[in-house]
User: What shape does this take?
Amino acid sequence: MSTETSVSRIPRINEPAPEIVGKSTHGVIRLTDYTSKGKWVMLFSHPADFTPVCTTEFVEFGRRHAEFERLNVQPVGVAVDSVYAHIAWIRNIEENFKVKIQFPLIADLDQKVAQAFGMVHEAVSDTATVRAVFFIDPKNTIRALLYYPLNLGRNVDELLRVFEALQTADQNACALPANWKPGDAVIIPAPITQADAEKRVQSNGSGVDVTDWYFTKKKLAAAAAD
Assistant: This one.
């Protein structure tokens, strides 16, 4: 007997993001409305409007709006609630917490967006979306994704760090170490020939910190000047 469930497939890293067309608090929007203009997109879901954990997240997203803008990131929310519920909840947040919510929130009543991105996990609920986050680049490619349970709010510092790390890696052809934050040294890709490995070891001290042939860090010029 098959043990498969009807849970929709979760899009994977480096795959094209599924196109979405959704009615939102900013009118009908498409994902490509933003990526086609060179923006990164943070597509995220939450379980339900007028719930306390989700409210804390939206308050923090609103407070950190300028930081998302600095990284050229457009947050786009989605939940299986009506646009009227979304509007009422956002107005309630703005009144109670004195923070402006400036990003669109999609009303996904038919679950088309949630199913396309694998946001409904039936082992948790067949009607509420879990806390999914998709990091989508201007080429409309999924670069990273995170999932959280219903009872755990997301760390906005980490969401911003992921975007900054991805952009840093793209701009500098490098990798980022554990716990990397802006200004920290980055990792230079390892050599792929024996001769280059020998050259790498000999290059220690010339702008790079070589621990071994495969493990080399360097400070980026802009970060070093700070």
In short: The longest strand covers residues 73-79. Strands lie at 21-24, 27-30, 40-45, 73-79, 105-107, 131-136, 142-148, 186-187, 209-212, 215-218.
